[in-house]
Fold this sequence. Notes:
With 683 residues, chain A is of the alpha+beta class.
Amino acid sequence: MNGEPVQILDGNTFVVSADNGDIAASETDPSGLFSTDTRFLSHWVLTVDGQRLSALGVDRFQYFQCRFFLVPGVPVQYVDPAVSVVRERAVSQFLNERLIVLNHEQEPTEVAVRLDVGCDFADMFEIRGAVTKRGICESSSEEGRLRFDYRRDNFHRETVISTSVPAQFDGRGFSWSVRLGPQQEWHTDLCVEPIVFEAGERPMTSRRAPDKQTRTTADLRRELDEWVAQAPRLDSDWGTLISTYRRSVVDLAALRYVPLSSPGQGVPAAGLPWFMGIFGRDSILTSLQSLPFFPELAANTMRILGLAQGTKLDDFREEEPGKILREIRYGESAAFQEQPHTPYFGAADSTPLYVVLLDEYERWTGDADLVRRLEPQARAALGWIDEYGDLMRNGYVSYRRRNEQTGVDNQGWKESADSVSYRDGRIPSPLRATCELQGYAYDAKVRGARLARQFWGDPGYAERLEREAADLKTRFDRDFWVQDGGYYALALDADGGQVDALASNMGHLLWSGIVQPHRARQVVEHLMGPRMFSGWGVRTLAVGEGRYNPVGYHVGTVWPFDNSFIAWGLRSYGFKDEAARIAQGMLEAAEFFQGRLPEAFAGYDRELTRYPVQYPTACSPQAWSTGAPLLLLRTMLGLEPLEDRLAADPALPPGVSWIGLLNVPGRWGRVDTFGRRSLNERG
Amino acid sequence: MHSSVEQAEPAEAMSSREAEFIDELRRHRHVGVLETTVGTIRLDILYGDRTDHWLVSVSHGDLHVTFGYGEADCAFQMDETAFRRLADGETVPFAAYLSNEIAVVGRFNLLIVLQQLFHGRPGARDPRRLAERERRHS
């Protein structure tokens, strides 16, 4: 495979292939047809007269549809191929593929078309290693279909492949002997059906409403058109902003995931293709970013996460009463409890962020009903902050995994094992209270107080939460402020000592409002200074720290989502120009990725590389990177709900004259908002 | 409205694990996070050729448990082994659904309610105590 992998999807059914459309999964090539966290197709290789095909081009025209233009063998310049092939692929629960073979000659010809297929039924957690299944795989052919079957105890998955033009079958694929007249074409339609059986051999799809059991490409097209039509309209003299915004709107549609428990309610999944499922943190943060545009995502996210809120202690799943989950999975490793995702609760940030989202949602939408309905969940979440979240009983939210085998080390957004360190690069013992968690807890209390007073009729509780928030703010400043550095420590360790590396976690503190006003200037100078600001955005870890590495996942790269929240925080402390600088850096970076910001890019100085170097990762688009331009847009326009109207206080980057955002939904109905740079500021 | 046929509980036939679990459920009358949920679930527990039915209605966090068959928004069908595994916390309803140890017939979101009625894995530790021990040893 030479080019980029090609992926298309519908919900959590997706296909990842090479740029010629082939799937040849191996330990180093995690491609395939996936559904419900299982690989239903691991081999799907087309040959013509025994030759593999090469891509002349790929038309990726929708997230659920693409087309491959191919020639047999290696394309040679100045030699016109006698035969070419087009694969038209769409996914809508099934994988549908039309194979078209074209004869370009004036003479008739006969070609042998062969499609090799294979299914390994790998679980999502097996695809990056050798797949060794515990159950039994079998294949059979019948009435024009090839059937692959996997069983382990009662667990049962099946792949059924059919072709419209009869083929010769063997256990490993289809063969057609195709006769083509001069300049004639031939085609066959293939359908691959991934089937998940529930108990009693009932297909899981039968849970969906009858009209939703089979979705066609036309249904998907219509749903996408409706989604785009309801999005606010953006106008500006900044072309990149418009194209990035359009990309984000479409990608957010692709990222909607409808869980079984809540038919018809889409929530933002974390990322394509490997994280198409419910992730507490990712769904909450993406809902926050997209509130001014698609507020229903927030409502769906809160309903679903609230329904599955923790009620008991469970070490394997790291569940605690009141906790909001990290992740749900549907595959074999979850079913047989080899992985803890049923659900897994190993996140210390999703619970306070749940309360933050609930309040922010009400401020935008005025949906008091939902705030009242989710009162028990919000109270339980606030309770968790003070009870199970306060592991060291020192008034700070901290984490320490209890599932030593399959749990996550770091339970904030920077999950990798080396993301929390001292300046000299040492890693603290596993019990940690990272700074941003304290910011989220503070914000949850402040916002919880507003909800208690205005909607739950409990002024006593509101006062208590406010007292606790004020106390937390004072203690936090005393315990986390690094005197000789002039910034907030990344974390406190098990002894209450400062884990003193300078990291972007501090940027979220501004958003949460826990930063003492007299400290804000110093915090901002660090964030926008040369050690942290790369020219594109704020690095996850400052240059000069022991573990700094410009291409280290959480120790030096620049994350668009992280930057969008930092910019929001800068705005709320009055640092408008700095927020606009981040917005500008991010959107200029997006230009290099056709408007689709990656999960992260390298922390090299912008001056050095001139273009943002993408961090190698399989996930694109990623939900919170897709949401980043939306939050940056809100930040540049200075949009804030103010009682029943939408207030705007624009601060545009230099060179941008105007931005108009029309039809912004909210408690005011729909309104238009404009930002203009005055003539004397024009830069 | 759901009709239910209340029957005398089959004291001798019911497994001791079942009796214990139902007792516990009855003691545990209110579940805070279920305050937003209304619905009736039925447990169908298969013992060879006999099936025990339990109806658990959830209304704003209050649980009401009765023995006997009745209409429900969602029925969970399982054999004796699956029931024991759930009651002992060896598995949880969501994992048992994925591995087809239990059949879920009806409103799927009530599976999450069921999940909240069972324990997790036995021997769970309070994370605060664990942290305290670790701090003492460090």
